[in-house]
Write a structure and sequence with these properties.
Elements (H helix, E strand, L loop, with lengths): L1 H19 L8 E6 L2 E6 L2 E3 L1 H8 L3 H36 L7 H41 L7 E7 L2 E7 L1
Antiparallel strand pairs: 1-2, 2-3, 4-5
Helix pairs in contact: 3-4
Amino acid sequence: MRKVVFILIVLLASGLINESYGQKKDDKLKLESGFFGNKYYKGVWSISRGEAFNMLSENGEAYNLAIEGEKLQKTSTIISAVGAALIGYTVGSALGGAEDPKWYIAGIGGGIVLISIPIYSTGNKKIHEAIEVYNEEELSASLNHKPFIDKISIAAGSDGVGLRLTF
């Protein structure tokens, strides 16, 4: 009976040891894009932008993609702010009682805002791509680890049946 319990304990321990290698599904870096910006998660835990970029800096390609995407998002935000200012100027002058509010300026502002949308979207896609590259690299790196117990087999000999562990 003690041998059976010992075998079960060894099998359970080897399963836990082997499970400890590799990136678990919930340990991935994730990005949720919202109206007020991006939120970064490591597994189920919310992390700051700085922590996420520190993790991405471990992978040069992912880090460069993330920096490029963030630059595009900031550029888009500045462009859309200029467009919104043009719209706001025209609407403000109309509400202020101007005889001839220059509506073409509001149209130009609207066009500028529309131009900024695909720029922001492209930046967001690059950040998502950077996170995918990082997660794939982490997963492939974790698959290269050799487990503690390489092989478990049942062996029979003159003394009886036993468990053979290969390290």
